[in-house]
Amino acid sequence: MNCPLLSVIIPVYNAEKSVLNTLESIKKQSYSNLQVIIINDGSTDDSHNVISEFIKDDNRFCLIYQNNAGVAAARTKGLQYVEGEYLIFSDADDIVLPDAYQYLVEEAIIRDSDILVGNYLKGDWENFQMINHSKIIENKDVFISQMLRGITHGGLWNKLFKIKIFDGIAFENGVNFMEDMLILIKILTKENVKISVVSEIPVYHYYLNKESQTNTISHKYLIQGDRVVENVSHLLKEEKFGEDIEYLKVNQKLLYLLNCDTYKVSIQNIYSEINESIFKMKIPLKYKILLIFENWGISFATSLFKKIKRIIQ
């Protein structure tokens, strides 16, 4: 089998406790023709030294430092060093599962895919679930629709790319929240992009612990999310994706609602153009009720919901 060079980009920020597990999982891959580009995004912990020691005897790995600028800028910098025919991303606190790269490259060659989407595990190391993409339709418009509706995750780490489809594509400077979905939509709106789905084995473990699930999203990231919504709305045709964009907006509205203890905002006025559509949307009933109450100016239900959620967690 042809063994093309696979480039891997890993942004790192203060990941001294987790990054070695990530790098070890990549080093142990059965597919060995790798270029692993690690971007230290201005870490203030010992990440740089930890990584340097780990990679010193393996010339497939390179470590590049930049002043802290966020994950989007780190990935952009990584793209400048890519030499491979194929590209994949990883986060510095996750695990690439055994034989993942071998499997993905082989399937990408067989299918001649521009984007290959694999199954993944989600959760902590002991309690996790398999996210199975076997029912995803291999049509880029359907895939975009599923991402906007939250049916399919927009993460980059379970997707293998032909590097050529990044021609003319750039991460949005200063957008470090929902940036994965935005770059995917930029790619998928190009002409003649072929997307395929493989589901024989999971390829990635997306580490999500209880603490990370309960963290409050900062106002800075919510504002960045608004920029993503604006960009997506400009990229996609209203007549084809109008209803899907409404789902994206309602999900963003929910993020404001569930994090508004910290910031005093009027939920009713955020994406007010979709307020009347919430009644007919297929979203969890508890969130639909909260949004409707907020639109009526009744906020006690949200406060009660948050208190109950904190108690049961």
From TrEMBL:
Pfam families in alphabetical order: Glycos_transf_2 (PF00535)
The record's keywords, sorted A to Z, are: Glycosyltransferase, Transferase
User: What domain of life does the native source organism fall in?
Assistant: Bacteria
**GO MF terms held by the record:** hexosyltransferase activity
Q: Where is the Glycosyltransferase 2-like domain positioned along the sequence?
A: 7-152
Query: CDD domains from the entry?
Result: Glyco_tranf_GTA_type
Q: Which PANTHER family does the UniProt record give?
A: GLYCOSYLTRANSFERASE, GLYCOSYLTRANSFERASE EPSH-RELATED
Name of the protein this chain belongs to: Putative glycosyltransferase EpsH
Q: Which organism is it from?
A: Riemerella anatipestifer (Moraxella anatipestifer)
